[in-house]
Fold this sequence. Notes:
This protein starts with 5 loop residues before the first helix and ends in a 58-residue tail after the last helix. A three-stranded antiparallel β-sheet has the order 1-2-3. The chain has helices spanning 6-12, 54-60, and strands spanning 13-18, 24-28, 39-42. It is an alpha+beta fold. It has one domain.
Amino acid sequence: MRLLSSLAIRWRARKVGADEFGNRYYQARSAAAGKKPRRFVVYKGQPEASKVPADWHGWLHYTEASPPPEQGYARHSWEKPHLPNLTGTDHAYRPKGHPLKGGKRAAATGDYEPWKPV
């Protein structure tokens, strides 16, 4: 895929909005005959699809006709804030005993019996 310069993006697309992570969302100014105009995101920092919050994901994939409101949709009390996938980063979850966490695994309790084929 060819990366577009910021000037080319301004000529070919109009900015629709931005999210709380600094990602910017665009829609092409024109579309091929009978096709929907292309929608895309310019990521802040490293491009990673999991950085796109659910509000904008629906718009990018034509589930929603209009972009989300600037303040976002109303949240339920049980909803957690959006977090990108942290796998492979320094912030990834590592359980106790993980070699990269510097810990040692707890000793086995002796209640484990390995499976033996007959």
